[in-house]
Amino acid sequence: MGRSPCCEKQHTNKGAWTKEEDQRLINYIKTNGEGCWRSLPKAAGLLRCGKSCRLRWINYLRPDLKRGNFTEQEDDLIINLHNLLGNKWSLIAARLPGRTDNEIKNYWNTHIKRKLYNRGVDPQTHRPLNDSTVSATIATAVPPQAQITTSHNNVIVKDVSIVSNNNKNNYANTKINGTKLVCEDSNSNSSCSGVSSDQEAYQHQQLNLDLSIGLPSSRPQINTDSLKLQQPQDGDGQQETKVTPSHGVCLCYSLGFLRNQVCCCNKDIGNTVTTAVTDNSMYRFYRPLNI
DNA sequence: AATTTATTCAACCGCGTTGGA
DNA sequence: TTCCAACGCGGTTGAATAAAT
Questions:
Q1: Helices of type H across chain A
Q2: Are residues A151 and A278 in the same domain?
Q3: Which end of chain A, N or C, is more open, meaning fewer C-beta atoms within 10 Å of its C-beta?
Q4: How far is the CA of A19 from the C1' of B2 (A)?
Q5: Which residues touch strand B (CB under 7 A)?
Q6: Is A184 helix (H, G, I), strand (E, B) or coil?
Q7: pLDDT per residue over A21-38, tens digit each?
Q8: Statement: residue A238 has pLDDT above 60
Q9: Is residue A12, in this structure, part of any structural domain at all?
Q10: How far does the CA of A15 sit from the C1' of C14, in Å?
Q11: What number is the average pLDDT over the span A254-269?
């Protein structure tokens, strides 16, 4: 059994694309537009698998691609977005015009990982390499796809917006900093509420959480020059690297049912995770950026 | 100059998701 | 509701190139 192959393998080319193949693909897409990748190779006269054509176009031939080295600003943005999203390369790429998910993924693996290691930061967790203090209690209480990080005394649960079940009865039932959040289907006139409870275990039902991430509309862009790198020397000769952002950065996790919400917060919130309920049953979580 | 090792990145592969029949 | 083709994503591979010996 198993999945059938995406195309006939016997009569397809593999490996590097030739200039002629590139030109055929460009010409075809210019005339007919993107899409219907399965039938494209035959229509374009290419002995390639549809997937291969799609990848070649998206990662290399698209006219809006930016070529050349990544800038420092792009580096910082990638690091920040990865901190938020994890290895969601397509989501990260969506915030970097002209860059592809594949390009960013490669760049991450070859450059940024090393850069972060040199800073003493674990590229997966974005925490200091010698910091292993994650609350075991909370760690067992969040869905497997969520990411947990700590910032000072706060536990930050990220990436809880993976599952979406539109128009069904949905329950988001999770616990952050001892506050259990319940979000129910807006179609049934219910709303989100925060219920303090340190005792209740997480019960992961079906999440219906929209994640929107954006810099606050009324704030200036992050000045990366203001991120101060400190390397205090402790008694054992071990070094601990801390990066102290001079501003908190607003990261809005919108849990609810309205899409395309734009962050509207404009308050400095220091180093704590705070929550607020908006009038459209949205929860927003703010945290300072911690590189 | 030749060989080995490391690095980069385009391309592939497999799997999860989506949407139409 | 179920099935399945197509799409899209993330992890991995391997050829090409650069750097080191």
A1: 19-32, 40-44, 50-56, 72-85, 89-94, 101-107, 113-118, 136-139
A2: yes
A3: N
A4: 33
A5: A 2-3, 6, 13-17, 48-49, 51-52, 55-56, 59-60, 102-103, 105-107, 109-111, 164
A6: strand
A7: 888 888 888 888 877 887
A8: no
A9: no
A10: 10
A11: 35
